[in-house]
Amino acid sequence: MSTYVVSDIHGKYDKFIEVLDKINLKEEDTLYVLGDILDRGKHPIKVMLKLMEMKNVICIVGNHELMAIRCMDFIIQKITATSIDKLDKKIYRDFSIWYRNGAKTTIDEFIKLDSKMKFKIIDYMKNFITYEKLYINNKNFLLVHGGLGDFHPDKKIEEYTLDELVWNRVDYDMKYFDNIYLVTGHTPTMLIESNTNPGYIYKANNHIAIDCGACFHGGRLGAICLDTGEEFYSS
């Protein structure tokens, strides 16, 4: 029984399947997905549907799921004069932010689904957890999508806001904890200045950064086994 973590798939279905094949995930294993399943890549909804079929997957919400959830309830409404009249500045703003962050591919696939499946996807995403604490082989791990905004070593994880967990980025040059490994996505590892191996999993100062930039030039999808430290990559 092993625990694996992947993050920021961003609609790269083929890369996700390739990494799954390399992991050779078994029924007794657990795969954590640290958010940002949606947007940018060609098949975000196809990835989501695959995850929904897998019984041993636990998803942590990312900022792209958060943006989508705020807009999808409106997308599934029947457009009428009344619904248009009810549009307010917040909905316009939420759609604008989401679209600027690569929502087109998600919307294109989502609107082709039947109504029942649309609701299933929304319900599935609304049940994503915000963080996970794990104890594996005498090591403590804390899994979040983005980081720990307004960080303080005495601040309990329950005290962080959702935005602080999904939007804020980690200072990878700073060691947050002595006895906890902080596992994050959100920040592509090629953007970590101190990373000498950009585009691959970054480990330093008790940080494990696993967003390897799957949807960017020179990037790939990366995953890690927390039990062994073994790393897996798409081509």
UniProtKB/TrEMBL annotation:
This is Calcineurin-like phosphoesterase domain-containing protein. Residues 1-186 form the Calcineurin-like phosphoesterase domain. GO terms for molecular function: phosphatase activity. GO terms for cellular component: cytoplasm. It comes from Peptoanaerobacter stomatis. It holds the Pfam family Metallophos. InterPro entries: Ap4A_hydrolase (IPR050126), Calcineurin-like_PHP (IPR004843), Metallo-depent_PP-like (IPR029052), Ser/Thr-sp_prot-phosphatase (IPR006186). Gene3D superfamilies: 3.60.21.10. Coiled coil: none annotated. CDD domains: MPP_PPP_family (cd00144).
